[in-house]
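Worked example 2:
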Amino acid sequence: SNLALALLGLKNWERAREASQKAIEIDRENVYYTQVLATVYNAEGNDDLDKADYAAAKANYDKAIELDQNAAVYYANLALALAGLNDWPGAREACQKAIDIEPENIDYRRKLAGIYNAEGNDHLDKADYAAAKANYDKAIELDPNAAVYYANLALALAGLDDWPGAREACQKAIDIEPENSDYRRTLAEIYKAEGNAYTGKADGGAG
């Protein structure tokens, strides 16, 4: 198992798995060796995730979970891979499993918030503003101190022509990160879009 961990550090995944499997065959009663093999699959999954190979990452995290179903981090990592594949229900379910195993770990709640935010972005890109708003609301509920979620919510609300709500959400982002000029620009764009909306209505009425 020590050899497996050394090979893991070298990212020699195939040999690390072989060394772990050999240790398991020698002492099948020792769960530690099974956990080491799970660690190898998880580390390989992390390497795949870094390369944005989400399908390969998912396959490795699935293997890690199969070997060690009580390691919350494997479910959290699987959630990130599933999010990369735009499998939002699967990503949420996996992240919730991590939270269920380690409810005191706030990082997993933040990860779930990030997944809701990413799903919201996906809906926003498709101009599905109501669905985007619902996801940003969930993200904020889980992590109310992340300015970017309020800024994204502002864009969704602007898409729904909820100008007071959009301004309020964007101002919240500014309040959390006053040094971030992007949020001030977003607020300016919201005011501009609101002005254009009212001008368009006035023009339409006059015609």
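The two ends are 79 Å apart (CA to CA). The CA atoms of residues 79 and 93 lie 8 Å apart.
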